[in-house]
Design goal:
Length: 495
């Protein structure tokens, strides 16, 4: 009876208005404000919801006893989230934020092209009113960045290749990808520790350098040239770089690229936070010198006879045919020109066994910012290999033995690949491995010194031959001079 009376006295409109008023009064006096972040905003997925979920999953202070666990496709780890009505307290720059996860049943299915889930999920963020400005300006951005970082860390890195040539897949992508699981890291890489630290610091500066690159007006990219004999760890270094920064790798096979425009298309389809690799650049293609390039767009054609042939083979579509019509200019534009700036945070790595064969234009700063020489195994690198392959620290080995290694390692000129092969073969018997390696190093050093002696002897022989021929020539010249003199004196007398 009272309910009916109440309903008649207070019609729904009046009740709604009074509830609204009460809410307003409550909000007026409350020192908190609330934000709802729903999973689906209209019909679009709310990116902020996913970011908050991921960000909170990394927080250790979850109070609830029931957590939801997920493992995304291509992910290497589990993430957990809050269940219904669980609460979590987070602090940012000394400011407290209360997060609550809510899950409610969706009332009625409204018409949409995309079926919506039955549950409506979201987060409620409660903060003090005085912190509202700071939270909205920086906290949410911080959450987005952090979530992206976690996502990248959890996800498998990918190795892309353009081995399909210029053909595209169903989504118009010229790259094919496979999960990248190379175990090489800077810890396993045997090289001079000082050089290694220098490179790691350079990479870190690059990854954190968005503001710096913006301030200086430079494209956010960096080039490294790795050079040295085969088996010194150039490819392993690239894998270590990718694992260190959490970047994807694009392994660009230049022999599969026919034209400069194809090269540009490939570059446009690369993502940021990636390493673009061209291995063995001196062998992959004969790049024509830029100075000879013709005036066509970006110097597509050279004036060399081969290029005239190429120009002759342009199809009615305007595309050039034939292998290797990609030029050095095209490659330079790819790494340094306007096109290099589409996308950001990218590293270019070129490797070669013969740096002297490369065009100086490719080596200048800005294109290849750092030239890293991967040398034969040094003593410091050997210690790293001992630790990684045999589990030996420096102090665990006999001092005499280590001295022998130190004296012979530089003369032997063995690559880390050669040395690791000896260590792998004998890894069950560590002491045998060490002794066998010492033997191998000594015999290689002896061989090298014999070659040096032979070289010196040959050089001396050649020098001797040169001097004898020079002496003979001098004698001949002297004879000629003497003859000339006698002739001239005879002529004078006759005169
Ligand atoms: N510096 C190194 N540290 C650790 N392992 C190395 C190193 N260098 C080579 N290796 C080992 O030798 C193998 C071959 O090395 P890698 O392919 O990196 O050499 P590379 O310099 O790229 O040779 P190439 O010039 O022939 O391509 C690797 O599997 C790795 O295990
Ligand atoms: Mg290699």
């Amino acid at each position: 009876f009272s309910q009916t009376l109440l309903h008649t006295v207070f019609p729904p409109e009046l009740r709604f208005a009074s509830v609204k008023l009460l809410n307003k009064i409550f909000n007026w006096f409350s020192s908190y404000c609330y934000f709802d972040i729903t999973e689906i905003d209209g019909v679009n997925t709310n990116e902020l919801y996913n970011a908050v979920q991921l960000y909170l999953s990394s927080s250790a202070s979850i109070t609830g006893t029931r957590l939801s666990l997920t493992r995304a496709l291509n992910s290497t780890s589990f993430t957990f989230g809050l269940s219904n009505n669980d609460c979590i307290i987070d602090t940012f720059n000394g400011v407290t934020a209360w997060w609550e996860h809510f899950v409610t049943q969706r009332q009625s299915q409204t018409f949409s092209w995309r079926p919506l889930p039955d549950e409506k999920r979201g987060f409620t963020l409660k903060i003090e009113k005085k912190n509202k400005k700071m939270i909205l300006s920086s906290y949410l951005d911080f959450i987005m960045d952090k979530a992206n970082e976690i996502r990248r860390k959890n996800q498998d890195r990918l190795l892309y290749t353009n081995s399909r040539g210029g053909s595209l897949d169903s989504r118009g992508n010229p790259w094919e990808s496979v999960p990248f699981k190379h175990p090489s890291t800077f810890d396993t890489l045997a090289m001079d520790p000082v050089k290694k630290l220098e490179l790691m610091a350079d990479l870190k500066d690059f990854a954190d350098g968005q503001l710096f690159y913006q301030k200086t007006g430079r494209a956010w990219k960096r080039g490294y040239l790795l050079y040295g004999p085969p088996g010194t760890g150039k490819s392993s270094m690239i894998a270590a770089m990718a694992n260190y920064l959490g970047y994807d790798i694009y392994d660009l096979e230049l022999t599969e690229v026919n034209t400069n425009s194809e090269l540009r298309k490939l570059l446009m389809k690369t993502t940021s936070k990636s390493i673009i690799v061209i291995e063995d650049i001196d062998c992959s293609i004969t790049l024509n010198n830029r100075k000879k390039s013709g005036a066509r767009s970006g110097g597509h054609y050279d004036s060399s006879p081969t290029d005239l042939m190429r120009i002759g083979s342009i199809s009615p579509m305007g595309e050039e045919h034939g292998a290797n019509s990609i030029t050095l200019s095209g490659l330079l534009n790819f790494t340094d020109g306007l096109w290099s700036c589409c996308g950001s945070e990218r590293i270019f790595v070129f490797t070669t066994n013969h740096i002297e064969k490369l065009d100086p234009a490719l080596l200048r700063c800005g294109r290849m910012d750092m030239h890293i020489f991967m040398s034969f195994c040094s003593y410091q690198a050997l210690l790293i290999l001992f630790k990684n392959y045999l589990g030996f620290e420096k102090h665990e080995l006999e001092a005499e033995l280590m001295k022998e290694f130190e004296s012979v390692i530089d003369k032997a000129q063995m690559t880390p690949a050669d040395i690791s092969e000896v260590l792998i073969k004998n890894r069950r018997d560590k002491h045998k491995a060490v002794l066998e390696l010492l033997g191998a190093l000594k015999s290689r050093a002896m061989k090298n010194s014999m070659i040096v002696v032979q070289d010196v002897e040959e050089q001396e022989k050649r020098a001797l031959e040169m001097t004898t021929t020079e002496e003979e020539e001098e004698e001949e010249e002297n004879c000629n001079d003497a003859l000339l003199e006698t002739c001239s004196s005879k002529q004078e007398k006759m005169n």
